[in-house]
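Q: Predict the assembly, please.
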Amino acid sequence: MGRSVLKYVRVRDYLRSLVTHELSAGDTIPSERLLCEQFGVSRMTVRQAVDALVVEGLLDREQGRGTFVAPTKVDLEVRLASFGEEMQRRGMEPSSKVLAAEVVAATPDIADALDILPGERVFYLHRVRFADGEPMAIEQSWLSCQLVPGFFDGALPDSIYGELRRRGLELDWGEDTVSATEVDAQDAELLGVPAGRAVLRLARRTFAGETACVYSRSTYRADRYVLWVPLRAPKRPLTPRAGRTSSELTAEPATTEVVG
Amino acid sequence: MSEGRSGVSEQAADILAALGGVANIIEIEPCTTRLRSEVHDTTVVDVKALRAAGAHGVMISGHVVQVVMGPNVDTLATDLEELL
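A: Predicted assembly structure:
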């Protein structure tokens, strides 16, 4: 068991490198027989390796035609840009299909995310986002009616961020919470993928300074997106100074004298 | 009231008090948009007071209290360091 797992991993990782660094989208991969010979493994082991990359979305298997290198996944950078801006930056043409655009009462979770009270009116926008005509993501967005009065008057804004900036809201920070799930039947249909496929779910709060401007929940196809996260070492943590007595420690912080 | 504190913000003092004061702090780490604090006792953490002090969210898990503040966490951390 252990040995065959290792063999399978070797074939899979060889194919992964081949697909990402030597072949192009649409190319065929080496035949099963060739891979069996090259690695001295059974046909079943090769199939397992290929299956794994099909599931990962690196390969596309077409019935009766063979197995091909899938289009490169879009690296979904966690940055404060909208779907449309990101797609344009990558030379893809963004478009949307609006499923709902209405004013609703904020439920407690939405209110919390927007720093407003439950029941306050919010604009709700539900869209399928396309890149070059292909469905890529589903996006639900909520904005406080009080913050952006008349947001839905006239034509719906193509870009929420764009419209907010026009209104003088300088979006400068936010937070994404990312999870992975299987797509439900309805979202699968909207995304044009089989139900049960993996998707990335992003919940985002977008702020302009101290003002919470947008809360959104997006569902991205995991076969077309990877998440790219820049990392840096944590900042040095702050700790209470040693040697302070507990009576000093309980002194009201607001009266602490600071020298220098 | 603020002149006695050499520019240390009232906000930092309020946040520290809401976290249970210096005595309750094990460590505080500024994390991009959050203050990630490890405290001795989470039951004395005053979530309402944290929100009143400008927090956009408070997550408590185990001994860790994460306070969503935005990109000003670094400035806030500098102030907190003076108070600790």
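DSSP finds eight helices and ten strands in chain A. Chain A has a mean pLDDT of 88.
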